[in-house]
């Protein structure tokens, strides 16, 4: 079954379709000018508008930016400015050149970046539609804030406590917060949840709370333990599930990056239809 989790962390892949009318390329788009500053990694930059203070985002912070990107032949490939909507993402979840550059900036600052291929998508990008080689970005840092802290590891993460209820399949669960109403989702329902998942050694492997974004999915399209467990819930309820390996990804998952063995999830059912 498919994962209960959405795709990996945000990447620097912005929509790849170019806007109808691009913003004109900077005159120095082909190469960094002599007065550009360079870092040890090969990233070059120029400050276009100084920032308002001396605080910088950290690698785990979430930033809000406006940006436009060009290839060195002057072709614009993406722009939040043209879309009229700033982009928000985690500093550590984008291409290396952005992760480095953003940590040098302060709020209100605007910089031009020349990001070498090895700090962007490479000279032969594996990602469909990603631009190749050195990329040039004008980036304005509008705001930043610390990412939400991950929820604490449950004390009973190693095994279900005696008070936990068990179903014939081997799924164990405990209600943490009562919900409202009496209706339960069906296997065909689309549900919206917040969740955090841990392996039994207490390692968190995924959390919609840290991403600050609940997920919506068809209940029949996830691991068996989720399909069964979420049907036991009502809207507004929060429960902890101990999902045995055979109802999750197995002891030796075939899916790359999937966690092995019994998994523990805190799930809050926000809505379903």
UniProtKB/TrEMBL annotation:
<feature type="domain" description="PPIase FKBP-type">
    <location>
        <begin position="60"/>
        <end position="145"/>
    </location>
</feature>
<keyword id="KW-0413">Isomerase</keyword>
<dbReference type="GO" id="GO:0003755">
    <property type="term" value="F:peptidyl-prolyl cis-trans isomerase activity"/>
</dbReference>
<feature type="compositionally biased region" description="Low complexity">
    <location>
        <begin position="1"/>
        <end position="16"/>
    </location>
</feature>
<feature type="compositionally biased region" description="Basic and acidic residues">
    <location>
        <begin position="51"/>
        <end position="63"/>
    </location>
</feature>
<protein>
    <recommendedName>
        <fullName>Peptidyl-prolyl cis-trans isomerase</fullName>
        <ecNumber>5.2.1.8</ecNumber>
    </recommendedName>
</protein>
<keyword id="KW-0697">Rotamase</keyword>
<feature type="compositionally biased region" description="Pro residues">
    <location>
        <begin position="17"/>
        <end position="30"/>
    </location>
</feature>
<feature type="domain" description="PPIase FKBP-type">
    <location>
        <begin position="188"/>
        <end position="273"/>
    </location>
</feature>
<dbReference type="Pfam" id="PF00254">
    <property type="entry name" value="FKBP_C"/>
</dbReference>
<comment type="similarity">
    <text>Belongs to the FKBP-type PPIase family.</text>
</comment>
<feature type="region of interest" description="Disordered">
    <location>
        <begin position="1"/>
        <end position="63"/>
    </location>
</feature>
<dbReference type="InterPro" id="IPR046357">
    <property type="entry name" value="PPIase_dom_sf"/>
</dbReference>
<dbReference type="InterPro" id="IPR001179">
    <property type="entry name" value="PPIase_FKBP_dom"/>
</dbReference>
């Amino acid at each position: 079954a498919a994962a209960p989790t959405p795709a990996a962390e945000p990447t620097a892949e912005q929509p790849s379709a170019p806007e109808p009318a691009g913003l004109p390329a900077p005159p120095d788009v082909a190469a960094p000018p002599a007065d550009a500053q360079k870092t040890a990694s090969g990233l070059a930059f120029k400050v276009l508008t100084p920032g308002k203070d001396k605080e910088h985002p950290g690698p785990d912070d979430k930033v809000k930016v406006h940006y436009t990107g060009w290839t060195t032949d002057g072709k614009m490939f993406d722009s939040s400015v043209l879309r009229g909507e700033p982009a928000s993402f985690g500093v550590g979840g984008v291409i290396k050149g952005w992760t480095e550059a953003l940590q040098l900036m302060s709020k209100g600052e605007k910089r031009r970046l020349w990001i070498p291929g090895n700090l962007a998508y490479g000279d032969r990008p594996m990602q469909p539609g990603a631009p190749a080689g050195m990329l040039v970005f004008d980036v304005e840092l509008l705001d930043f804030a610390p990412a939400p802290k991950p929820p604490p590891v449950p004390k009973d993460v190693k095994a279900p406590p005696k008070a936990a209820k068990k179903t014939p399949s081997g799924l164990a669960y405990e209600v943490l917060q009562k919900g409202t109403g009496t209706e339960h989702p069906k296997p065909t329902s689309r549900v919206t949840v917040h969740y955090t998942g841990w392996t039994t050694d207490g390692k968190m492997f995924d959390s919609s709370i840290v991403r600050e974004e609940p997920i919506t999915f068809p209940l029949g399209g996830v691991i068996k333990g989720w399909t069964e467990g979420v049907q036991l819930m009502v809207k507004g309820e929060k429960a902890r599930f101990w999902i045995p390996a055979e109802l999750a990804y197995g002891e030796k998952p075939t899916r790359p990056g999937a966690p092995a063995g019994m998994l523990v999830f805190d799930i809050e059912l926000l809505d379903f239809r």
